[in-house]
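Model: Ready when you are.
Researcher: Fold this.
Model:
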Amino acid sequence: MRRAGAEKAGHAVNRRALLLGAAALGVSVLIPACGTEKKPLMGPPPVPPPTSPTPLTEAVTVQKMRSAARNRDVNLVIIAPDGVSRVGLPVCVALHGRGADARTFLDLGVQNALNQVVAAGLPGFAVAAVDGDNYWVDVGKGDDPQRMLTDELPGWLAQRQLRPPSAMFGISMGGFGALRYARDHKDLKAVAVASAALFVSWPDAKSRKVFADRAQWEANEPLLHAGELSASSTGVWCGTSDPFAGADRKLIKALDPAVAKMSPGEHNEDYWRGILPEAMKFVGERIG
């Protein structure tokens, strides 16, 4: 079973690499040796970003953007529902798991879920995904995903005549990052997390070899700052066989979120595909 951004036993189970369309941009893609060859993700090839505010002409686009905050080029994937005007759509930002990238969301049925939201009579919205790392926080490596989300992403969306982010959806490591972002952006209308990679202790967090020290982890760990989150705008989904089930139950107990669903499932794509329509409906009910 392929797993996108899955974490287990303290390491990434799968690493995604951007292959499709790289030659068209003259981009070299390096694939770390992982023991098995990985298939490229599906989706359209990257296209050049707009040079002036320009509405999206396709429902699904992949573009390369230079992030000063991350000191590298990142994928910007935008997915919108079919049959609606894409000008001025509200935006839910999707944060991927460890070892994956933004193109992960092309494989998880996001557009189908967005179409279901519109079919149910809810306002349409777009999902925007970007590449991140290090639990989506600044861990002192000259790579600050939170600053990218706060300072750069709104401008990238404005170039495409989309609204600034008003909702977050995070999977695994992305759940950690979405909750961290929500602490500093209390105007968010919805925050949905699936299989959030949270840590109940410093030894557990330290084993990931991401945080420089205990103080840095404590400053960012969502479980230690649940009081700064909005219960009414947060939804939590996790599989009962997920290695982070215990930590996510602690989040549910501390926060009492609007949706708290522990259901059969593991830390893998099958589970995330299964809960995605419900998570997008949760966002759609709040984002309009």
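Researcher: Now this one.
Model:
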Amino acid sequence: MTTVHLPASGRARRSAVDAADLPLPATAADRLLHDHCRPGHPHLVDDRVSVCFEVCPPGSGGEISERDARRVGMARKLTAARLRYCGLEALVDDAKLIVSELVTNAIQHGGGAQVTFTMTVRDGFLHLAVHDGTPCRPVVRSAPNDAECGRGLFLVDCLASARGGTWGTSDDGTTIWCCLAVPGGES
């Protein structure tokens, strides 16, 4: 398993990757990927990447800080880079959108000071999970046509269904996850 911890200072610490400022530079993402995939082979040797970062409480109106917005972008970039490197290009766009929605929701609605994003390819599925430590069960809601927010989980639900997957929360409500079928059943 690859783990990157991003403390409030914005510096990454990981045993096999040098510290890197946010947003995660492409070279750091590449090192993360090269450490855990076989060159020239689209299958993962170590099939799990986990990124943990500290977050600020949302501002009035649920707005997130610029630093936390960059962390959402970093999670998208890491997702795209990992999937491309491992030969799963077909999942990149949908996975990036799902990760963006799940991480943003954890920052906006979670009460914790830390969020952990985990991506695993196993048993023919891409598993995306976001843990915020808050025992709250998110629900899909219907947003008015002119609303600028409120459609995130609806999008996650639609994308998961279209990709032969599903989504849900852990029994204690602290983790939200989504699974997408890997094209061709690769794992």
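Researcher: Key takeaway?
Model: Residues 6-46 have pLDDT under 50 and may be disordered.
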